[in-house]
Amino acid sequence: MARPGVTYYDISRAAEAVKARGSEPTIDRVREQLGTGSKSTIAPLLKQWRNNAELNIEESDSGLPSDLISAVKSLRDRVQQASEEAVEQAKQDYQSRVQTLERTLADTQKELSEALGRERTLKQQITDLETNSRKLNGELNRLESRFAVTESERDALQARMQEHKETVSELKDENRAVRDHFEHYQQRTAEDRQLERDQFQSQLRQLQSQVESLTMQLTRSQTEKENYRSRYDNAQGQAEKIAYENQELRLKLECCGTRIKELEAECDNKNKEIIEFDQNISQFRTEVQSLKERLAIKSATFKGVETDLQEIREYADRLEAENKEISEEKAVLQGRLVQLQASLGDGE
């Protein structure tokens, strides 16, 4: 691509300066004389200068009228200048559009990179939230297991308390039976004594023989009474012990109930945290979906930019083709000029 400012006029002046020094104008010498320009730019312009130089030599040797030569040269210069200006303007427009598209492409790539960075950040946050959610679920499962164990312990304590209640009830029934038996024994003894009083006169001798037996029976009864009283005291002590154990079990049950309430409150808090994490995850997923949609839009825009760049390249190719056609037309005009010069020479 030619640099702005390097034209055919500059090349022609530099070539004439090199030729004035007595050297053959080459690409390197002309570039050294100009101090700028690329070989790909200087080569076609230098070739054009050589062709024009040869044409000037032919014109000077042909003896044509100077007015005709000046008119043809003026026409040639205007055509050359117009083609150069058109090509230069097209190249500048092409370069400007390419720069604009390159800036747009750079901005799009930068925005795409930022979107990908945000997407990676959001994916990492979602991964962290899912890890925390799994940890909370594991802790919730452990709390539920502990709650189930506590419930089973509570049920076991309730079952033991029920067994103690049944034992106390049995002891009370046994105590009641002992009292009934003792009262029945007292009533029976009173009836026997009354019967003895009634039959005292008639059974005095029998009573004397039975005193010893009754005394022994009374001794046994008193011993049995003491045994029953001892069993009653033991039952009473056991009942008090069971009542104390029942009180301790009740306190433990209350502690278990308090702990269960605490665990339930903790479970509620963990469930609320899990719900909040689920909401945050849903929000992050929505934002990721939005970023993906924007990324798709940017990708479509990038494809459109590539399409425009391809169109610009095709336009530049068409301009080069038109420039080539203009050069061919110029060559045709130069050929016609040569024919005209030849015909003018024949006419003279």
Automatic annotation (TrEMBL):
Residues 72-343 form a coiled coil. Residues 7-114 form the KfrA N-terminal DNA-binding domain. Keywords: Coiled coil. One of its GO terms (molecular function) is dynein complex binding. The keyword Coiled coil applies. Transmembrane segments: none annotated. InterPro entries: KfrA_DNA-bd_N. It comes from the Bacteria. This is KfrA N-terminal DNA-binding domain-containing protein. It comes from Halioxenophilus aromaticivorans.
